[in-house]
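Treating backbone geometry as a discrete language has practical consequences that deserve illustration. The amino acid sequence and the backbone structure tokens for this protein are reproduced below.
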Amino acid sequence: MNTSASELETTYQRALSAYPRRWREEQGDEFIGVLLDVARSEHRSAPTASELLNIVGSGLIARAMHLLGRVSRTRRSVLAFTATVLTFYLAVTMMLLGEWGPWVRPGTLRWRPTGQGFTEQALSLGPFTTGASLIYLLLIAAFLCTLLQRTALRRSLFLSAAAGAPLVSLAGQLTGTLAPPLHTMLTLSFLAIVALVGTPPATRPGRVLLAAAAVCFTSAGTALAVFRLSGEQALFFYNPLSVAPVDAHTLTLAAAASMLVVVVLLLSTTRQLPWTTIVVVMFAPAIAFLWSGPLAGYAPVLPPGQSGLWQWNTPLLISALSAGAITALILRPFKKKTLRPA
């Protein structure tokens, strides 16, 4: 084997590290042989960028499916159930408070804590304020398709919402138009993807339970948000620097934290469960406070009378729960004997 072929094989081996070790042990040599044959037939001594991207992307997908295989179908369905309820809640709440509510009207809309109005351009979307309304409508439609057992359409709608949500925010930043902050839309993408990890309810009682849970949770959550908004505070809903008690920032963080709590608990083994329960109980007050107001450590101005107990760093909460979920998933025993090829 000449030097160029050896370097090419080394490059392929490095790219193949994206695949799980078990897959590499079973099929790695054969796969590299095929790649070398293709490169030899095309008279190439180096891999193409698209080839490496395809290898790494497929490997990451295979690794994700490998980890997902550690979780039973029932638990994945519970995760999908929870994510579906949360996406419906956020879509309805933010459609009402950020897009279509009586306080969101041209001429009265304010996006700065100082109340000086806004400098971004508003889109002409009929009764709506930003392009995020299209994402909310996709999520609501995906929820309805779940109830109607339109599985293929449901999957397409959730994937479209997951892909389009961050693009709405980025487009707003690049063009100077009104749009929710990026972390808000990324949370929606995360929940939309989690909603697809399990199968939707196949029985009538399951669909009734999903509808009841979504309607009750959305009604209670929206009512709480409206109750906490008073006067002009509602006009700061999308502003990431808002000092209002409730806005898109706090609601999406609360939804993400709640989803991660469910993930941590469901992915924990019997031995891990006591420890993860202790962690969840420790963070429960912070999550509850997120539903009704921002953590003091995240507000630019400390609210009057705010106790120092709440001077938390919200990213620490999300990072800790994310680390717990990933750790529980990695340490969870793998029950399958063989791994299907990607």
